[in-house]
Amino acid sequence: MTAETAKRILDICQEAGQLEHFLPSLPDNITPRCVRVIEQIAVLSEKGPVRVSDISEMLDVTKPGITLVLRDLNKMGYVEKQKDTTDNRVVYVSLTKTGRELYQTYVADYHAHLGTILNEIGEDQVSLLEKTIHRILELVAADTNNVNK
């Protein structure tokens, strides 16, 4: 691959990041990162109680980083935290009614809306895009690991 093609890949990835500009306006003090955390809580809660470590693993973010976001979301009334009765180190989180409403509006409804807008893009194209991006990340990460050794 030429250097010019590699640059095109980086430019395309940067351009894809601009999709975030089309998100509906978020409530005060709510960031896209907050929405991603709320989304993970909603998804994970379908399988059972949600621990801070579960969110951390799903988003590939440190537990202290997730803890800070959860602290803010708790103060704003979007999530509730509860310690495990048998192990005080374990904290469970759940969405409040306000948190579920935010999830519905800014995740579920928005994704449904995007689904109608992007209807002409086939599942095969989405799968190819996903596979390509994952492979690019694997290759770059492997090279970065080799460079850092």
Descriptive overview:
With 149 residues, the chain is mostly helical. It is 64% helix and 8% strand. The protein has helices at residues 3-17, 32-45, 52-59, 63-75, 97-117, 123-147, and strands at 50-51, 79-83, 91-95. Helix 2 packs across helix 3 and helix 2 (32-45) crosses helix 5 (97-117). The radius of gyration is 19 Å and the shape is globular.
The description of the largest β-sheet is:
3 strands, antiparallel
Shape: globular
Poorly predicted segments: none
Strands, count: 3
What percent of the residues sit in helical stretches (DSSP H or I)? 55-70%
> How do the strands of the widest beta sheet line up side by side?
1-3-2
Order of helices and strands: HHEHHEEHH
Radius of gyration of CA atoms, rounded to a whole number = 19 Å
User: Under the CATH scheme, which architecture would be assigned?
Assistant: Orthogonal Bundle
CATH fold description: Arc Repressor Mutant, subunit A
- Note the gap between the termini: 25 Å
What's the tally of helices?
6
User: What's the overall average pLDDT, rounded?
Assistant: 89
User: How many structural units, i.e. domains?
Assistant: 1
CATH class: Mainly Alpha
- Determine the CATH superfamily: Winged helix-like DNA-binding domain superfamily/Winged helix DNA-binding domain
Taken as a percent bin, the fraction of beta residues is 5-15%
Class by alpha and beta content: mainly alpha
